[in-house]
Design a protein that fits this description.
mainly alpha, two-stranded antiparallel sheet, about 10% strand
């Protein structure tokens, strides 16, 4: 698969996540994860969007 396809899907995923993140901008507070590091609801939801968007085109890809 050409690198341009990876880039195309990656940019689409980021643009979708950006829209969501901007809805939370300045309106969210952080919670603590089990390891005591901060995380916001915007981050959690944005991660879901990124993974879902990439998996639609590349279902065999994994995430760390």
């Amino acid at each position: 698969m050409p690198k341009s396809e990876f880039l195309k899907v990656g940019l689409l995923a980021v643009k979708k996540a950006e829209k969501l993140i901007m809805k939370y901008y300045g309106k969210t507070s952080a919670d603590l994860k089990e390891d005591k590091s901060p995380v916001t609801l915007a981050e959690i939801e944005a991660e879901k969007i990124l993974i879902e968007t990439i998996k639609k085109t590349f279902p065999e890809h994994g995430f760390i």
